[in-house]
Amino acid sequence: MSSMHALAPSAEYPITDRNRLKRRHDRGSYDRCSVHAILDAAMLCHVAYVIDGQPFCTPTLFWREGDMLYWHGSSASRMLRHLKAGTPACLTVSHLDGLVLARSAFNHSANYRSAMCFGTARIVDDPEEKAAAMRAVVDRFYPGRSDALRPLTGQEAKATTFIGMEIEQASAKVRAKGVADDEEDYALPIWAGVVPVRTVLGEVEPCPRLIDGVAPPPELGLYRAGRSLDEGLTEAQHAYEEG
Amino acid sequence: MSSMHALAPSAEYPITDRNRLKRRHDRGSYDRCSVHAILDAAMLCHVAYVIDGQPFCTPTLFWREGDMLYWHGSSASRMLRHLKAGTPACLTVSHLDGLVLARSAFNHSANYRSAMCFGTARIVDDPEEKAAAMRAVVDRFYPGRSDALRPLTGQEAKATTFIGMEIEQASAKVRAKGVADDEEDYALPIWAGVVPVRTVLGEVEPCPRLIDGVAPPPELGLYRAGRSLDEGLTEAQHAYEEG
């Protein structure tokens, strides 16, 4: 784990014009751990890409393996057809953690964690990498589950396209604090405070057509009712990485 | 409210190559009500824009007035400097509503609501429109609150830039149902079901420096503990529209 090890990735992503934070430097960082923690707490990301000068912002499920990001969709989708040759993309994850009501309009804010990742998105066409992605898209979220499923058919494999992108640059941005008013405003008789926001899991709704006696699988324990989705996804990522 | 009224906006956004759904047509629509409902339930969006061929995907707070979308940031921000001349943008909102575990990898899915809006983003430089935005950025989320705040200073107004974009095309996409397995897979002894996901508000954390006797304002009632953020934001939008 020493950063002196020749093969260890450096602690920070390289900083270029693409990912350099242009404002609120106090909220930002470039280190891998911060970026990965924000990514691993999410299932949904937004990917920006360009077709003929027109930007598109597409929401999609994604997952991370080291510095690789993967997402998937039908080979018919607009984005994927255009990505075949490899195209610059920006994948962003954001978590809204709180509403911040201040004593002035200017100091109203939100608590959040976000990560922006830059790279070149490419279709995964290597058969081994694609087979691994077919398992990962299930097992990253539900560790061990792919072994228990009905095996993939050849037709399903053909109809599935995965996109892979190595993170070339990235940045993380976090606001996680209370009201930050101008010093003289604290004396005003105006209410200020934070409303926390949390994304939580509800009671599982089993499929009404379950075969009698089929018990909930162990991976469902990660997503028990009342837990944060964040926590469940982060724990699932760790379990997935440990194999 | 009749669609025969000459001045009423048509029920659907025009369909062009930009917003035409390329897959899962069964989940999509182009009607204003569906798109607006998804937007109005959110505070956070992701905006895609392009600088020198490089796509950026930026998370930001936003709000809607009719078919106009607004978001804001420091005039120093990368996005805004490049948007001054007006630039194509795509603003997307997504809500994750559930994890869908099926009997095959292929039928794993998520419940979600998303809206993609296309248009030309421009700096709001008309003084009246900017003054209105200064109030709206507070009042859309906290109806009536801007009147109770310490007034904006000239320096704050100068340091604030708003972006406006009229929605030229848009689409909505929704998955809101249970497991959809292949018919023959329902006979398999594999667990399947849905884990609902909800974004909820926590107990308010008042600023520790509140002046004695300052009571929580009425607009905070929209964001009471245990309520969905969705619901609070949707109700706030209605209150804001009713003035």
Automatic annotation (TrEMBL), chains A, B:
Q: Which SUPFAM superfamilies has this protein been placed in?
A: FMN-binding split barrel
Q: Check the record and name the Pfam families matching this protein.
A: Pyridox_ox_2
Q: Which InterPro entries match?
A: Pyridox_Oxase-rel, Split_barrel_FMN-bd
Protein name (Swiss-Prot/TrEMBL): Nitroimidazol reductase NimA-like FMN-containing flavoprotein (Pyridoxamine 5'-phosphate oxidase superfamily)
